[in-house]
Design brief:
The chain has three domains: 107 residues, no CATH class; 47 residues, Orthogonal Bundle (Arc Repressor Mutant, subunit A), CATH 1.10.10.10; 126 residues, Nuclear Transport Factor 2, Chain: A (Roll), CATH 3.10.450.50. It contains 14 helices and seven strands. Strands 2-1-6-5-4-3-7 form a seven-stranded mixed beta sheet, with helices on both faces. It is an alpha+beta fold. Helix 1 runs parallel beside helix 3 and helix 11 crosses helix 13.
Length: 298
């Protein structure tokens, strides 16, 4: 079997999966087919000799094509397409298969997905529907894993009909300021008060390395993930002495900066006046993907 024949066979073996990914992102069978065709053209033009997971490579290509289409669609202020009955009926290839694909998602879910920001939709579809890790999705959408995790969380809340994250900038910042103040002063009760009971704290590998080298008094060691308000408060008290308020991807957050250079970021998700998620980011490549504006103190 020639290399071209092998690639064709592998692509066909992945076609249904790629089409399912594209349909969930775009909500249109025709656009999904266009995205899959673009992936085939990309495959035909690329040197894939060193690609160990061709299915993953193709999924990444399709996801990026879909993200571009969603962004272009939003910038034109067009309404996203739903899988219309006429579109299914006019597809002569296999109407039953087309209907099955549409039914596997459900029109109600598609309606909700159409309300999401492009990055939120891609993050949700790839992670919650296809189990891709946030680190891989980050490379696709050009954001940090922390930001992608937040995007998927926003989408998940919308899909479940849960309250939207707090979007008012002043209220967001008040919550973050209260957290930082309580942390600086080692005020355990005040920290617990500003955290949701099931809050989650995550720290990237670089944060863990630095924290292990530079102990903060008697505070417990950081872990990659800590769950629960009391555990986070016990771990974080006294740890934010050098933190400065900032806007991170447009939301209230905080940074540790030296000479104006950001060394770490505190990425918050806030619901109903409580912190539900906090990501500590220090890996340089991930910091570069965050849009950060350092703010002055109140």
């Amino acid at each position: 079997m020639s290399q071209d024949d092998w690639l064709t066979k592998q692509f066909e073996a992945n076609r249904d999966h790629l089409r399912a990914v594209a349909f969930r992102m775009l909500g249109s069978l025709a656009e999904a087919d266009d995205a899959v065709q673009e992936a085939w053209l990309k495959l035909a033009r690329s040197d894939t000799a060193d690609v160990r997971n061709l299915g993953g490579w193709l999924t990444t290509v399709v996801a990026r094509v879909c993200l571009d289409l969603l962004r272009a669609r939003r910038s034109r202020r067009e309404e996203a397409l739903a899988p219309a009955a006429s579109e299914l009926a006019n597809d002569a290839r296999d109407p039953e298969r087309e209907v099955s694909l549409a039914d596997s998602v459900g029109p109600a879910l598609l309606v909700v997905l159409e309300t999401l920001q492009p990055t939120d939709r891609v993050a949700f579809v790839l992670h919650d529907m296809f189990d891709l890790p946030f680190e891989e999705i980050a490379g696709i959408v050009g954001r940090s894993p922390a930001a992608v995790r937040q995007a998927a969380s926003r989408a998940r809340r919308r899909v479940r009909g849960a309250p939207e994250p707090e979007r008012d900038a002043a209220r967001q910042r008040a919550v973050v300021d209260a957290f930082l103040s309580a942390s600086r002063h080692g005020d355990f009760d005040a920290l617990v008060a500003v955290l949701a009971p099931d809050a989650v704290l995550r720290a990237d590998p670089r944060v863990l390395e630095v924290a292990a080298t530079n102990k903060w008094g008697e505070a417990p060691a950081l872990a990659p993930e800590i769950r629960g308000a009391r555990a986070i408060a016990e771990t974080f008290k006294g740890r934010a002495r050098g933190a400065r308020p900032a806007l991170i991807d447009g939301d209230a957050g905080a940074v540790w900066a030296v000479g104006g250079e950001v060394r770490s970021a505190f990425v918050f998700a806030i619901e109903e006046g409580k912190i539900v998620e906090l990501d500590l980011v220090m890996e340089p490549a991930q910091l570069d993907r965050l849009v950060i504006q350092i703010l002055g103190a109140h």
